[in-house]
Amino acid sequence: METLFVWWWPLLLLFVRHAQAQRLNITTASRSIAFNNPGNILYLFDRVTEPLFLPKGEENIVFKLPTEYLAPRYQSIVSEITDRWGGVKNRMEIDVKPITLPDLSIPMTLGRGENFSPFLPHHRQMASRLVETFLGMRTYEDFLSLSIYCRDRINPYMYTYALSIAMLHRSDTNELPLPPLPEVFPDKYVDGAVFSRARQEANVVSSGNRLPIVIPLDYTASDLDPEHRVAYFREDIGINVLHWQWHLYYPFSGLMQIVKKDRRGELFYYFHQQIIARYNFERLSNKLARVKRLLNWREPVEEDYFPKLDNIVSSRVWPPRNAFTTLRDINRELDQIKFDIQDLERWRDRIYEAIHSGSVVNEKKQLIELTEMDGIDILDNMIDASILSVNPNLYGDIHNLGHVMMGFCHDPDARHLETFGVIADPATVMRDPIFYRWHAFIDSIFQEHKKVIPRYTVQQLSFDKVCVTAVEVITEKAPKNEFSTFWQQSDIDLSRGLDFAPRGPVFVRYTHLQHAPFITKLQVQNDGPPRAGTVRIFLAPKFDERGLPMLLRDQRLLFIEIDKFPVQLKTGSNIIQRRSDESSVAIPFERTFRNLTGVGESQQAAAFTFCGCGWPQHMLIPKGRQEGLSAEYFVMVSDGSVDKVEQPPPEQNCRAAHSYCGLHKRRYPDRRSMGYPFDRVPRDGVNTLREFMTPNMGIIDVKIRHSEIAVGPGPGNVPATLPNLGEL
Ligand code: CUO
After folding, report:
1. What GO molecular-function term can you cite, just one (predicted)?
2. Which of 272, 344, 401, 430 to probe ligand 1 with, by most ligand atoms within 8 A of CB?
3. Domain containing 57: what range?
4. For the residues of 657-695, what is the DSSP string, one character each?
């Protein structure tokens, strides 16, 4: 298989078509598909700016729209459109059933050609109203009919965002696999220069003979910019997709039932904290200092960014940001937004005051304590800020409006009629260096709270009579306790986002980080009765920017989670082995991009939607150095009876990467604070990791060795066979 993740969508459509074939009514003119076929809604993601009456997918799906469903521009040329339907060969027709339409005036306020961001309060309100309307449809048929009506009327970005959230949260669609965003909006992920070449390839070369268009690793900047050394992380398509997905699962606003999820706020904190930890790890590996928090919003911002992305909806490029741009008060009537930097400063000061006083004030002027376990959740919902905020008037909307302030710094009063930069769109934010400075600041607020709550005692860290006696990392073709990183090329099919171009796949080939699979092997001595434990695995750099060992106070913020899983310990010695592709943090490479070829069975395919959230496996291990980057690999076995969360077994047959994404419709499956045992300041007298250790913890020195080779697309090029496991 030459291309690894680009095949999933055509195969999914084949699967849908196969299912549909069971229900086809063959007529002389064409074949028709039952309107309420579950897969029909997926065709709405195909070429989102092309009118819906044009054929969709490789199967020539034709939606036969009632006249009132056509966009106003086309209602006067119904007969021409009907002729088009009749002229499509081998078409499959879907007779659209009209419904009594709800009021859509609010979501329709945003122009079709404008950019959309859920960070903007006005956009958020419109999108939330649309999500609510979608969720309010009683049957799948009504929901589909409304989605069809909206498709050519509502802003395509907002439509895709709202439709995706609604599909994820409706019981009649939540098992359908959402299309990967890079295929729907490739303009948010790949070099804008590629599109004219891709259109040329699609127009000139027949479908089977097209060659992939190669995007070099260094297309957004050169090494004159030191920040460019970590562009491979910032611009990785997989982690940008994850960030977008994460915000779909955990929207800021909308109906309570979709916002109020178990430990939602804490998960926001932990997911973004881990992103910063991972970014800092990559920076240290590339001899860059840890990211500086964006603390002073009145100083010019040193970091610049030139995204080189087009915007297919607005037909404009994404605005860049020059070095040393000054952030300014925002007053854009166009976007119905007005706030001052001073507002953010006021909210920040109130939040700090609440942290130091140990409680927040709700709208009824009551004090709510920021407790050891739940304080972080309350705090996050105020900062994030979601509709769960205890007091939006007092604590504001600091995080979201920070994104907006940075996103409009090139045109704060809209005098140039410019749209926002990549920092204000959850699909693209992670590309921009300023994202990490902003979130390092946001994280420092959470860390302030973690500093004032009690530290873990030895007893809270121990597991009586359980001792980790050996830890080993085994990577094929690498010395013991070594990880191996290198580059890999992979292909993405742009054709579903190449609106108005001929059909058939058009691939771009991009380069990303990859690591060889590895096994963690542990020996655990249990001198108590048989019992349950939880294995927690973390990795952190061993030395700081100057090559000196770190205090645990600082190092704890750099520990990245690698895995967490339950084990049953028998009395005596236990050997535990765990493969990297089983990680609770990461989802397999194929699943990030939803390659159905790796899954096959339809039931499993349907489970993708909720199993599709997780850190991409290819970014699990940070890039090493050619000479080997020194790191510390930490393993802990905690008491499973304390960790356990009572809940019914999962409905879906898939292994979700819950560490960063949680579980759909279920509680977070670990009762400890997220990030335990590194989420708090170490106890008094403990300065180093070694002093922190209790017998149920193990630590080894490891190296991450990077090789500057780039292997070709496909799993066959990644060493997949793991070694035989000998005795420790
Ligand atoms: Cu995910 Cu600021 O929340 O980017």
Report:
1. tyrosinase activity
2. 272
3. 29-174
4. -HHHH--TTS--S--SPTTTTSSSPPPTT--SHHHH--T
